[in-house]
From TrEMBL:
One of its GO terms (biological process) is L-valine catabolic process. Pfam families: Aldedh. CDD domains: ALDH_F6_MMSDH. Keywords: Membrane, NAD, Oxidoreductase, Transmembrane, Transmembrane helix. Residues 1-23 are annotated as: Disordered. The lineage of its organism: Eukaryota, Metazoa, Chordata, Craniata, Vertebrata. It catalyses: 2-methyl-3-oxopropanoate + NAD(+) + CoA + H2O = propanoyl-CoA + hydrogencarbonate + NADH + H(+); 3-oxopropanoate + NAD(+) + CoA + H2O = hydrogencarbonate + acetyl-CoA + NADH + H(+); (R)-2-methyl-3-oxopropanoate + NAD(+) + CoA + H2O = propanoyl-CoA + hydrogencarbonate + NADH + H(+); (S)-2-methyl-3-oxopropanoate + NAD(+) + CoA + H2O = propanoyl-CoA + hydrogencarbonate + NADH + H(+). Its EC number is 1.2.1.27. This is Methylmalonate-semialdehyde/malonate-semialdehyde dehydrogenase [acylating], mitochondrial. It comes from Monodelphis domestica. GO terms for cellular component: mitochondrion; nucleoplasm. Malonate and methylmalonate semialdehyde dehydrogenase involved in the catabolism of valine, thymine, and compounds catabolized by way of beta-alanine, including uracil and cytidine. The gene is ALDH6A1.
Length: 561
């Protein structure tokens, strides 16, 4: 839990002016800008942390200001309402995000709307070419986007790279649009009559993203929508805007025409705007339950398609015949990685029978994890996103004590040297938890593992199925029959067998279920294409007697471009 290097001692930074200690992240952003070929400028955030930002999408005032992306231009908002965003490891202000004005939001939708007809008519092969270039540019800039994520979100650099990488895989999948977008045909339904269907884009679609995966989740949204021929209005989380802005620049550099992607910032007003605007046809949302239920309702009431991934409570069932070494490592990684701020985090372990004897060893392994600022070498988990998030998690841990559970490992008092003001909580393990306790009922979204016990596999299955959420679950066993029975009977959309975080690769869809999902068509995979398209079915009759003989074509036709 020690910082390996003082903040002032970033590589190549030995002669800092007094009072100006560029953070390692500050360096990182320089690299970011250089890599993307962006013009950079030095900005003084406070007397303590001068920081570099890519001036294309951040501009200078007293603090760096995130721009809007409207009609192919990064523009300064004219709003008078701003939201500060912070480095979660220090709570220092990084910059501020505008609450876009109604006029700006309208301009963004107008731009999407203007761009739609020609984008929808652009051949699918040309759209695919843009996505192929985009895939390459994301790959080339992956580490730089990750550094921005660590700065704004707090997760470790390795984890941030994973965040971009999982998004990149969706872009790669979107490149297979040429097979995914095919319709169906049924020839000769009756004499000279065929039926066939097309998959057509919807129009303007919108996405509202959460703070926990600043790159992956936006990349679940606009690339899939756009490759189908839709134009897109994106609202990133106001706490982590940098990755989305960067990804927008890369998309523009890949050749996406102006107006095909627009970005607005804001909070409730922006969300309501998206739910209500008559020109927006579909909304993709990932985030908290409360917001998701609200957006699902309000958007659906206005006749829009909505897909919403909400909260979760994921159970890992540990059978006594499991490979102990592997299981304990997987559990610790999946419960505490990303400081538990993953909706697919394994936040509950159910130890079946003799497996409960492994608890002390689980605690020992959790203790060994190193808590530190995400950009520090060796960090296993970083801070929580805000002081409020930390307070909430501490509160839930406290409720465990009050309601009769035991806290075997308590991370609330952790001190991270050099980052005393950060929102850190160390790994925490609560055991003896019953299903009516607050720490079980609430999604904790912090580095807290809740441990329950069951006598049998059947009892464990019942416990998981009684929980309202159905995002993900895992079973650890070396017995195939046990694994099969569990996968078959458990009522959860995504099941891992000796795999702790079973987020499907993008050729499949993200199949959260029950209270973890609202809508009927999931994110990415074939379902993602279905969500962003509508079918047109054509029944046609060309009578044979009307055909004329024509001269044979002898030249190989070229199509598409
Ligand atoms: C499940 O987990 C994912 C990924 O962490 C998260 O984004 C989502 O909100 C959660 N809920 C559902 C239904 O997917
Ligand atoms: C949970 O249920 C048990 C037994 O029914 C009861 O004794 C206990 O007070 C309940 N705890 C909470 C927090 O509701």
């Amino acid at each position: 839990m020690e910082r390996r290097r003082r903040r002032g001692q970033a590589v190549g930074q030995t002669d800092n002016p007094p009072g100006a200690r560029p953070s390692r992240m500050a360096m990182a952003v320089v690299v970011v800008a250089a890599a993307a070929g962006l013009r950079t400028q030095m900005l003084r955030v406070s007397s303590k942390i001068p920081t570099w930002y890519p001036a294309t999408f951040f501009s200078s005032s007293s603090v760096p200001t995130v721009k809007l992306f409207i009609d192919g231009k990064f523009v300064e908002s004219k709003t008078d309402k701003w939201i500060d965003f912070h480095n979660p490891a220090t709570n220092e202000v990084i910059g501020r995000v505008p609450k876009a004005t109604q006029a700006e939001m309208n301009a963004a939708v107008e731009s999407c709307k203007r761009a739609f007809p020609s984008w929808a008519e652009t051949s699918v092969l040309s759209r695919q070419q843009i996505l192929l270039r985009y895939q390459q540019l994301i790959k080339e800039n992956l580490k730089e986007v990750a550094k921005l994520i660590t700065l704004e979100q707090g997760k470790t650099l390795a984890d941030a790279e994973g965040d971009v990488f999982r998004g990149l895989q969706v872009v790669e999948h979107a490149c297979s649009v040429t097979s995914l977008l095919m319709g169906e045909t049924m020839p000769s339904i009756t004499k000279d009559m065929d039926i066939y269907s097309y998959r057509l884009p919807l129009g303007v679609c919108a996405g509202i993203a959460p703070f926990n995966f600043p790159a992956m989740i936006p990349l679940w949204m606009f690339p899939m929508a756009m490759v189908c021929g839709n134009t897109y209005l994106m609202k990133p989380s106001e706490r982590v805007p940098g990755a989305t802005m960067f990804l927008a620049k890369l998309l523009q550099d890949s050749g996406a025409p102006d107006g095909t992607l627009n970005i607005i910032h804001g909070q409730h007003e922006a969300v309501n705007f998206i739910c209500d605007h008559p020109d927006i046809k579909a909304i993709s949302f990932v985030g908290s339950n409360q917001a998701g239920e609200y957006i699902y309702e309000r958007g659906s009431r206005n006749g829009k398609r909505v897909q919403a991934n909400l909260g979760a409570k994921n159970h890992g069932v540990v059978m006594p015949d499991a490979n102990k070494e592997n299981t304990l490592n997987q559990l610790v990684g999946a419960a505490f990685g990303a400081a538990g701020q993953r909706c697919m985090a394994l936040s509950t372990a159910i130890l079946v029978g003799e497996a409960k004897k492994w608890l002390p060893e689980l605690v020992e392994r959790a203790k060994k994890l190193r808590v530190n600022a995400g950009d520090q070498p060796g960090a296993d988990l970083g801070p929580l996103i805000t002081p409020q998030a930390k307070e909430r998690v501490c509160h839930i841990i406290e409720s465990g004590t009050k309601e009769g559970a035991s806290i075997l490992l308590d991370g609330r008092k952790i001190k991270v040297k050099g980052y005393e003001k950060g929102n850190f909580i160390g790994p925490t393990i609560i055991s003896g938890v019953k299903s009516n306790m607050t720490c079980y009922k609430e999604e904790i979204f912090g580095p807290v593992l809740v441990v329950m016990e069951a006598e049998s596999l059947d009892e464990a299955i019942k416990m998981v199925n009684d929980n309202p959420y159905g995002n993900g679950t895992a079973i650890f066993t070396t017995n195939g029959a046990t694994a099969r029975k569990y996968s078959h009977l458990v009522d959860v959309g995504q099941v891992g067998v000796n795999v702790p975080i079973p987020v499907p690769l993008p050729m499949f869809s993200f199949t959260g279920s029950r209270s973890s999902f609202r809508g009927d068509t999931n994110f990415y995979g074939k379902q993602g294409i279905q969500f962003y398209t509508q079918l047109k079915t054509i029944t046609s009759q060309w009578k044979e007697e009307d055909s004329l003989l024509s001269a044979p074509a002898v030249v190989m036709p070229t199509m598409g471009h």
